[in-house]
Amino acid sequence: MLTSLPNLLTLSRIAVIPVLVGLLYWTTPWASWLALLAFVAAAVTDYLDGYYARLMNDISPLGRFLDPIADKLMVAAVILMLVASERVDGLVVLPALVILCREILVSGLREYLAEIQVPMPVSRLAKWKTTLQMVALGILIVGDAGPGFLPVREIGELCLWIAAVLTFVTGYDYMVRGLHYMRASMESEQKKL
Fold this sequence. Notes:
Layout: H1 5-15, H2 17-25, H3 29-55, H4 61-84, H5 93-115, H6 124-142, H7 152-192
Helix pairs in contact: 1-3, 1-4, 2-3, 2-4, 3-6, 4-5, 4-6, 5-7, 6-7
């Protein structure tokens, strides 16, 4: 049901995206810190929606559909705004690109596998990848507005590179598993002919 607590939490994550984009448009310190606050609040809802869905035994097809979409929309919007505002530039655009491409690839793969009724559960490594992505993006949102005694931007960039490596590894893992099911599905279809 759309109005269940887990689904409302997921929808709130989608609703915060325009706020995040607006705050990331400005590069003032106060806007960076407000953007971080909105981003952290949205990231917490990602944990809470799953927690409450399991606690309340309210895992729905709508929630399973909306949750990964909300995550991918938020990550993509933040990455694009960080690149547009040049908080992520130079070679650091490459891990951002790896993350975006993997998200699109895995979304397409999940859609195909859903058609042939094959679930693609999230791996433990993929959960770590998501956590590191969120940490990296949060640090990069603050960027140069962070404490002057810390190389905040460089820490965020390093975390983004590490997240990109995990992103690549988990994307490769999903592709290998997905291709196995695709091949089996195609062979099954050919046998029917």
